[in-house]
Amino acid sequence: MIVKGTVVRGDGRGRGLGWPTANIAVPDDFAAADGVYAARVKIDGESGTFAAMANLGRKPTFGGGGDRVLELHLFDFEGDLYGREISAELVRHIRPERKFGNPTALRAQIAEDRKSIEKILCI
Question: pTM of the full predicted structure?
């Protein structure tokens, strides 16, 4: 499943947790289940793709609600993506989105998710 969009500013929580993300709004008709995914990202104007960890949903640990958003942490990429067009292929669903008791527990789970995603994407 592929979703395309323009990278917009989020709340900065991913960067604060040590996992900066590129955020794109999700179309109303995007039918993928909320949760964490292994992903591949193409950035317009860049050659190749980047392995990524994706979260699709409403960020329940930080209050939830609001619009669905796709948050993408690109592996081996540094730079400013705000305002750039990207397309993300959701390769495999890892786990459902869920609420964590605190940011430390979320950070630990993200580290485990990354290990799983690296195996799936063979990196």
Answer: 0.86
